[in-house]
Amino acid sequence: MRRIFDRRRFLQASGALLGARVLPLCLPNSAYAAQLLDQASVALLETPLNQNPFTLGVASGWPQPQSVVLWTRLAPEPLAPQGGMSPLAVPVKWEVAADPAFKKIVATGDALAMPDFGHSVNVEVAALQSGRDYWYRFHAAGASSIVGRTRTAPAWHDVVTNARLAFASCQNYEHGYFAAHRDMARQNLDAVVFLGDYIYEGRGHDGMVRKHIGQACKTLDDYRQRYAQYRLDPDLQACHASAPWMVIWDDHEVSNDYAGRSEAALDPQFVQRRLAAYQAWCEFMPVSLPHVLGVTQSKLNQALTHPQPTVFGALSIHTQFNWGQLFNLYALDGRQYRDPQPCAPIGKGGSSTVLAGACPQLSDPSRSFLGAQQEAWLKQHMGQRSVGWNILAQTTLLAPLHMGDGDAARIWTDGWDGYPAARQRFLHDIAHSHMRNPVVLSGDVHANWVSDLVVGANADDFAHPKLPVIGTEFCGTSVSSHSSWKQEKAERVAAQSPHIRYVRTDQRGYGLIDLSPQRMQVSLRYIKEIVQSDSEIGTLAQFLVEDGKPGARREA
Ligand code: FE
Ligand code: CA
C-alpha cells in the first residue's frame, strides 16, 4: 500500500509532459519533484483507492490569455478528517483537450496531491490558446474525475464582440439550496465572478433548510470540512465545472465582520484562526497560488510539500483580469487590509449601527477600506489599458444609504458607509482615471441595489441630484443567505436617495451580464423557492448601461 518514495519508479510513472508548463504541486520537471520528495521523505500512494477520490468535483479559474488554473481535491470521504485519505502523496494526472470527448488532447501532465495541502491539486496550465474553450479532467489512484469545461481569456489586442459573465455572493448553506448555481451552469458563461461569503463559518442550527456540520469553524480541519460540505452540493459542483471563476472573499470565509487582524469578539487567537481559514481558502479556490502566496514556483512547491502555516498568514488576492479589448476586471480585497469598523461598542469589535453625528471616527481621513497599498495599486492600474468596460469587482455596497431621516440617518459601519473618506477617495480615483465605462459589482448585503455613482467635493455629494454620474453599481443579491432588510424599509431609503435606481431585498439569486462594446445588459436572476432544490428561476428585472453613458436604465 505505501512505501517511501522511489525516485526511479516515480520518474517512470510520471511520464512525459506535452509541452505544458506545469505549476504548483506539479512537476516543472520530474527530477526536481523527485528531489523534493526525497528531501521531504514523503511517501507515495501507489495502489488504487477503494473509493472514488473525486467526490468534490473539479473547478477552474484565474483565466489568462495563455493559462488557466485547474483544481480538484482527493477526498474519498470528504467530510471525514483528512477527507478519508492517508498521509501519503498521490500522483495525479491531468489532461486538457480541445473537445469535450477528449479526441484531441492538447496538454497533459503530472501533479502531486500533498497531504499537508489537504490533497488539493492546483495546476496552472500554460501555453494554451487565447479566447477559447477547453475541457479537462484528472486521473488518480485508479479513478477519473468528471470533465470540466473552462475558457482562456482573449489576448490583450483581440477585439471581442461579446462576453457573458455571472456575479454572485453570499451562499449560506443553511438558508437554502444553490439553484442559482444550477442556473449559472446552464448559461455558457465566459466566467463566474464570485464576490465573497463562499462559506459561512457559523455552527449548525436546527430548523434550517440544511444544517452546517459541527461548531463554528476555528481550526484548519473545521474550515476544510465546511468547504467540503458546501462543495458536495451538486449545483455548486456543476457551476464550477461549467466555467472559470474569478473569486474574491468577504468576512464569512473567516469570521463575521472581521477587519484585518481583528474580529468581532476581539479573540486574541484570531490571527491563528484567520491563518487556518486562509489556508483552507487556498486549498479550495481555483486561484493562482504563486500570485496569491507571493512566491516563486520553486518556493511554492517547497511551501506546499510541508506548508509552514505562516505561508498563509497574508494572501494577495487582489488582481486584474483582462478580456481583450472588451473589459478589464479589477478584483479587490475589502477585508484583509481594512481598518476596524468605527465606533464599536466598548469591549467589542465588528459592526454596529451608529448615528452619523455621534461617531467622530467616521470623518477620519486616515481610515482605509482597501488599505493604503491596495489603494495605491488600484490608482496606478485603473485605466492603464484602454478597454471598453472597466469592472470593479468588490465586496459590498458602495453607494451610500445614509441620507435622509429616520432609518436612513443611521449608518451600518461594516459597509462603505462606515468608511466615507475611503469611499470618497475610491470614487475620486475612478473618476480621475478617465477609464471608459466604470461599473462596480458588489455583494454582501443580500439584496439587489442598482445605483448611479457620483462624485463631488465631499462624501455627502450623493445627496445632490445634479452631479454628473461617473459610473454604475450593480450590487447583487445573495445566492441563498437571508436578507435582514424588509422591502418597505429599503424602498423608504431609496426614495430619499436620488442615485438609487432600484432595490429589491426579498429575492435570492445572482446577476447575469451580457457585454458587448456598445452595451452592458444586466439581468437580475431570482430563485422562486429558495427552500426547494429544483426551484424555478426567472428574471426579476433587467438593466442596460450604454457605452459612454454611465448609469443604469431599466429595460424590463
Ligand atoms: Fe453574506
Ligand atoms: Ca459579508
Tally of separate domains: 1
What percent of residues are in strands? 25-35%
Name the CATH superfamily classification. Alkaline phosphatase D (PhoD)
Shape: globular
User: Share of helix among residues?
Assistant: 10-25%
Strand order, sheet with most strands: 13-12-11-23-24-25-26
CA-atom Rg in angstroms: 23 Å
The largest β sheet comes out as: 7 strands, mixed
The number of strands is 26
Helix count equals: 11
CATH fold call = Purple Acid Phosphatase, chain A, domain 2
Mean pLDDT: 90
CATH class: Alpha Beta
CATH architecture: 4-Layer Sandwich
Q: What structural category arises from helix and sheet content? A: alpha+beta
Low-confidence segments: 1-30
- Distance between termini? 61 Å
The distinct bound ligands, ions and cofactors come out as: fe (iii) ion, calcium ion
